[in-house]
Amino acid sequence: MFGTIKSGMSTSMFEISVISNNIANSSTTAFRKSNTSFSDLYSGASPETVSRLSKGVGSLVEGATQSTEHGGLLKREGVLNLALIGKGMFVSAVPGADGVPSQALTFSRDGEFALDKDGILRTSTNDFVLGYDGVGGVDLKTLSVPYESNDGAQLTALEINAEGKILGTYGGEPVKLLGQIAIGSFPNEKALRQLGMSRFQSTDEAGTLILGVGGQEGFAMIQAGAVETSNVDLTVELTNMIRAQQQFSGSSRILQTYSDMIEKLTR
């Protein structure tokens, strides 16, 4: 009996923890909320042997799974602020100890990018944004925007279109294609490992990485001048919080009642 009551309190506390994290990150760019899942327990029984009168022995936390619903769009000035409209995630590489891109890839829908002092495109966590040198590229590479052309002309305009093509204008020279941003997708995005800062890492359960570019079939379009908001609905989360608190309160009262009964029986 005590184990059953304790399991009810434990599951409600776990759910409150997950909900609290969702609420705390409701304003985090491209944050994906988590949902909790539980299962009931029967002692030493299988679905074939459980009697209609069998009582359960509590509940079990199966885990927290991320929601793959997309957040809304928030306008944000700057050509390097990008949002994905549709399926996929930006692909980036973590800097190694020597400062160059490592083989560790990360994935995120957070498109708050910036250029470093060398003109290399970086994420908000300083990872290297990956893409292709030109249209139809195969190998992932870091993307760079030179601040001046080979002829010494200064960068005067920069554009990123819906296909993720980075277009630079240098003085009176023709527009130059500087690269194209890559988009990655997985068969089971819910199984990606959360790294924090709206970043994810591939797992075997997520499936094989599929690479593409903006506008390609099965991949998102890219919108410049906007970022994706979190997919947290505060009204839903607060409602779930109240329900989880009521569950914990109910379990606490049952525990008190159980303690009082045991005390009377042992007098």
Kindly describe this structure:
The structure is a single chain. The protein is an alpha+beta fold. The chain has 2 domains: about 1-70 and about 230-265, no CATH class; about 75-230, no CATH class. The chain contains 2 helices and 19 strands. The chain has helices at about 1-25, 235-265, and strands spanning about 35-40, 60-65, 75, 80-85, 90-95, 100-110, 110, 115, 120, 130, 140, 155-160, 165-170, 175-185, 195, 200, 210-215, 220-225, 225-230. The strands form 6 sheets. Strands 5, 6, 10, 11, 12, 13, 14 and 17 form an 8-stranded antiparallel beta sheet that branches. Strand 5 and strand 6 (about 100-110) form a beta hairpin.
Task: Offer a concise description of the structure.
By secondary structure, the chain is of the alpha+beta class. It has helices spanning 2-24, 234-265; strands spanning 34-40, 59-66, 73-75, 81-85, 89-95, 101-108, 111-112, 114-115, 121-122, 128-132, 141-142, 155-160, 165-170, 176-185, 193-196, 199-201, 210-213, 221-224, 226-228. Helices cover 21% and strands 34% of the residues.
